[in-house]
Structures are given as structure tokens and as C-alpha cells.
Amino acid sequence: xxxxxxxxxxxxxxxxxxxxAAPMMLSMLIQSxxxxxxxxFVSRLGTEALTAVSLVYPLQNIVLSxxxxxxxxxxxxxxxxxxxxxxxxxxxxxxxxxxxxxxxxIVIAVxxxxxxxxxxxxxxxxxxxxxxxxxxxWIVLGLSSGSLFQITYEKxxxxxxxxxxxxxxxxIGCVTNIILDPIFIFGLFGFPAMEVAGAAIATVIGQFFxxxxxxxxxxxxxxxxxxxxxxxxxxxxxxxxxxxxxIPSSLMLAIPSAMTGxxxxxxxGFSQMYVAVLGIYLKLQTFLYMPASGIIQAMRPIAGYNxxxxxxxxxxxxxxxxxxxxxxxxxxxxxxSLFFPNQIFSIFQKDAQLIALGSxxxxxxxxxxxxxxxxxxxxxxxxxxxxxxxxxxxxxIRQLILIVPLGFLLSCFLGPAGIWICFPVSEAVAALAAVxxxxxxxILDF
Length: 446
Hints:
By secondary structure, the chain is an all-alpha fold. The protein contains 17 helices and no strands.
């Protein structure tokens, strides 16, 4: 069984990273599509329906952050144990991860049913919007087990270096959702028109189709990890290791939402136009950071495996190669942002004033793209090695600790430009902090 994963310490680093990152990038694009399909179809029902789905998004995002973060923790433990040659312990980690996921499903379902209406009532007083939002939330949170389990399977497969299967599972789930959305929402082919509830049901069925795909693959394909579902077993030490990475990782995924809300409140004090600029920039950055994130996700299991195997020299090559690949993406983004900002913003908005303000913001923010490669790669490395708190610290520096107070201070003197300046400053400080942690803990000293 051990030889099955040896390619992670024998295959040349660059083609290995590329072969594992490419499916991850496509998977993330598919996941993004998953998130907008409901809104596209629901928008045809009217503003109230679109608002209802949008109101539920924060709750969905919390659930997604929890499940992905815990999946990263499971991935980290499995990859390191495989590298150490402890296949039985890797299997135990996968099984423990499944038990934790089952517990999370129950907790989310109960809380989702309990807090949905009180939470959504804070943001709308329109009875129709509230009713639709509650219907959507009760379905997607009450039946979130499909989503949570398929994400757990995804991270287990990634830990084994099997990146193609998660892509296939996501495609099947997404296509299922796209096909069922209009059928259930508008009542086609003899089905009743369920409107917003139909969109939620289509989403849940798509998630369960992804989960079913993993179950079929596991029954027919040996990925080198044995997942014991029955009887379920919980190893407390393994669970603690998973949570030590999973909880910080979950918080890291939730931090950008908090940062966006705070910056929006600052920018709104100048003009709603600047809020729109930030919103467009956040959409634009996904095209840059999504492929970079694909590289990081591919790097995690490779780095964890080689660390567990004691292949420290190879680890250095893995980090160097990841840094070069991520840096190349960031250089391309910087060049486009500095020389073609008007053309980029005009894709989203034709208003001349907004394009001018957005171009200024993009030129300033882009100065931090390249240096962010350092903190992105090292943050992923920390997660791979089980150093969840260090990874969380880097993310906090990048997206909260400095941007908020420094943005407030500089905006008093420089206006909105002071907030834009905080982005590259925070990236530079985060990069320095990441390098300091690596040096202090002698992670790459060999």
C-alpha cells in the first residue's frame, strides 16, 4: 500500500505539482459555478427570490468554511502519516474524519433549523422574502450532510494524491444541479413549480450525487486509503490533530467576509462608488488567487507526505517550485493590473468615473500581488505540517490585523487611497512574518 503513494516522493517536482494542481483549479472553477447557478435561475422569479437566496449565503458560507477547514485538517494528518509509512494510522485518520463529519452534520442541521428564521429576520421584514429565504435555508442546512461528506471525501482523495476523482465528482454534482434547477424551480416535465425551495432541493441533490460518486469510486478503486464507515470509530488523539489544523483553517476561510464587511463600512463613508470598486476587485482577484490556490492545495499533500517520509531536501524543492509557479501567476496579474486596469474594470462596469476610481485602486493593490506568493505558499506549508495556528496568524496579518486599523488611519489623511495602500503593506508584513516563522522553527534548515 505504501508504494502506491511513492510517486509523491519520486516523480519530478514540477510535473507532479502541475498534474495535481490542474484538476484542483478546474474543481474550484466548478465549485464557483455551483455557487452562482441557483442565483441565475432564481433571479427569474423576481427580486424577492434573489434577495432570499442572497440572505442565506452567509450561513452557507459558514458551513462551507467549517467543512473545508476540517477537510484540510484531515488531509494534513493523512498525508503525513502516509509519508511516515503508517498506513493503518492514515486509515484511522480517514475514519475519524468521517465520524467528525457525521457529528458536524447533526450539529449544523439542528442549529440550521433553530436559528434560520431569527437570523434572517434581522435582514428583511418582507414576509415573502423571509418565507422563501427560510425555505431555502432549512433545506440546504438541514440536508447539508451531502455537502459535508463529499468535501471530506474530496480532501481524503487529495491526501492520497488522487486529484482527478474529486474533479469528476464535482462535475457530476454541478451538472445535476444545473439540470434540476429549472425543472424544480419552474415546474417542468410534470414536476410542480417549487420556486426557491426547488432551487434548494436541486442543490442538495447535486451534492448527494457528488457524494454517491465518491462511494462508487471507493467501491471500485483502491486509492491506498481504507475508510471504515461501520462500525464508526473515533480516535481522540487523531481528532485533536485534525482540529488543530481544521479550526484555524475554518477561521481563515471566514476572515475575508469579516474584512469585506468592515472595509465596506469605511468606504461607504466616502461614496457608494468605492464600495462597488471593492466588490469588483474582490471578483477580479478570484481569477488570480484561484489558480494560485490550486497550486497550494496540490502542494499540501505532497509537502506533508515528504515531511512524514523524511525527504527534507525534496521538500525544499517542492516549496521553491510552488513559490515560482505562484509567483509567475502573480507577476502576470501585476502586469495586467498596472498596464490595463481600465480595460479590466470596463468588463464589469461602463461608468467612466467608476472605471477611473477602480483603475487607481487596482494599480495600488496589485503592488502586493507578487510578495503575497511568499505568505500563500508558507501558509499552505504550515497547514501541511500541522501548524494551523501559524497559518492562521499569517492570514490574520494579511486580511485583518493590519488592513482594518491601518486602513482607518490612512484613510483619514489619504481618503480611499489609504485603504488601497493597506493591501500591499499587509502582504509585505505577512510575507516577512511567514519567513520569520520558517526561520525560527527551522522548517527548511537542512
